[in-house]
Amino acid sequence: MSQTIFERYGGFAKVRRVVSTFYDYVLDDEVMAPYFTGVDMRRQIDHQSKFISAVMGGPGSYSDDHLQRVHAHLGIDHEAFRVMSSLLREAMEDHDMAPADVEAVMHQIAIREHVVVTA
């Protein structure tokens, strides 16, 4: 039986470290930082860790309807989505994830662009 990406990297603890690094980059980015003004980042990291875990084959799932609903008020455009994707890729690479695993996660992110981008 093959392992999921989530299992291969040790589960939620590793994902949380990747996501924490990702948000360090996000908060330093002039395009992305404004989206997180006034956001409880501990809660945000927890939510995003759960989402990325699910994308990696871990527990949980997120429907397109759910993702659209939670992002609808943010006015995210394609440029912000591109920057976010780039920062997530960088965080995964910085945590020594294999290129094929990074690509698999990025594919799962890319196929959700149409529900996250609202502007």
Structural class: mainly alpha
Percentage of residues in strands: under 5%
- The general outline is globular
Number of helices: 7
Low-confidence stretches: none
- What is the multimeric organization of the chains shown? single chain
Number of domains: 1
* CATH secondary-structure class: Mainly Alpha
CATH architecture: Orthogonal Bundle
CATH topology (fold) name:
Globin-like
Mean pLDDT: 95
Distance between the termini: 42 Å
The number of distinct β-strands equals: 0
Rounded to the nearest angstrom, the radius of gyration is 14 Å
Portion of residues in helices?
55-70%
Main sheet specs: none
CATH superfamily: Globins
Topology:
Blueprint: H1 5-8, H2 12-27, H3 41-55, H4 64-71, H5 78-94, H6 99-110, H7 113-116
What keyword list fits this structure?
119 residues, globular, mainly alpha, 7 helices, Globin-like, 0% strand
Describe the structure concisely for a colleague.
It is built from seven helices and no strands. It is mostly helical.
